[in-house]
Amino acid sequence: MGLKKLGVRRFCVFALVIAAVVTWIICFIKSEAPSSVTAVGSMPDQTLDYFLKKGIIKVHDAADIQWYHAANSKHKITEALQDSTQMIEADVLLRGRDPKEPIMAHPPDNDSDITLRDWLKMVVNSDKGIKLDFKSLEAVEESMALLDKVRYQLKGPVWINADILPGPGGMATPLDAQGFLQAVAMKAEGDVLSLGWTTGWSPNIDNPGYSWEMVQQMEAMCKNLTQPVTFPVRAALLSQSFVQFQWLLQQSDRYTLTIWTGQSDVLNVEHLLPYRQSVSKSRIYYDLLENQISKFKSLPGYTMSQLEQS
Ligand SMILES: *[C@@H]1O[C@H](CO)[C@@H](O)[C@H](O)[C@H]1NC(C)=O
Ligand SMILES: *[C@@H]1O[C@H](CO)[C@@H](O)[C@H](O)[C@H]1NC(C)=O
């Protein structure tokens, strides 16, 4: 009897010690992870985790994600699904003639040989992520409904993009921000929202950067969202806007940047180094031209963090 009791007591003590050790290990692992405050119910970007788990990228570095652009035809989406990129970007608008349904096209085109419906049918067979770029509000609601129908078949990350605020040099009219967020935010709980400013860039002038007012306005639009948000920002306007984006990224760990370039923008990739060196590598995607990316990656400062430099 007594011996048996002793055995039970020993077992209990043993179990407690094991529990304590496991708890300690879990706490230790957690404290190693980047810790910044996340609001309840909100989610940081899972895009990198997805590609890491697949073994497609090796480290938490968003610069290793590659993009296919304007996969707006049968031929191009076929090519995109077979090449070495991880994310496929395409433009969605409502067809200019009947039947008016969401198609894959970039203005000024108003027709396409592929509808969003058929495009999604092709994408569900793939492990790649997608970024749908909306140029007008009228296609958004129907597109989100189509997306909903295949949501559980889609394997990769889904990004929903639109310019919703006027930005530096922007001439185009942004999509109505409230209208867009209403159409998208409720339907896109696990998606990454890619929310940008209209922009312009001209050669041989001092192009203005993103102002404090612009980033503050964006933060006000995004702070109540629960989704991860990436801000598409124009590479050639970034050297003038470093403190503004440093501030913006500090407002939530749901926020990332996606640096893109206009085809004919003159870009000095060295101007992107301050971003690379002082922001976590998991928080800046680079959607640049191939030669720009390789030049950027070959800069001595590319692999160095600010800490290592000083
Ligand atoms: C679509 O584009 C074509 C060619 O540019 C043009 O002729 C046509 O009027 C446009 N249709 C609509 C409905 O905008
Ligand atoms: C965000 O939430 C706060 C508090 O609920 C509210 O006062 C504010 O108007 C909301 N902002 C937006 C842009 O919806």
Helix content: 25-40%
Q: How many strands?
A: 9
What is the rounded Rg?
23 Å
Q: What is the quaternary state of this protein?
A: single chain
What summary fits the major beta sheet?
9 strands, mixed
Fraction in beta strands = 15-25%
**Helix and strand element order:** HHEHEEHEHEHEHEHEHEHH
Question: CATH architecture, please?
Answer: Alpha-Beta Barrel
- Which of globular, elongated, flat, extended, rod-shaped describes the shape? globular
Classify the fold: give the CATH topology: TIM Barrel
Name every ligand kind in the structure.
2-acetamido-2-deoxy-beta-D-glucopyranose
> From the helix content, strand content and strand pairing, which structural class follows?
alpha/beta
Query: What's the overall average pLDDT, rounded?
Result: 89
What's the end-to-end separation, in Å?
Answer: 69 Å
Number of domains: 1
Transmembrane segments: 7-26
Protein name: Fam151b
Organism: Ictalurus punctatus (Channel catfish)
Pfam family, one: Menorin_N
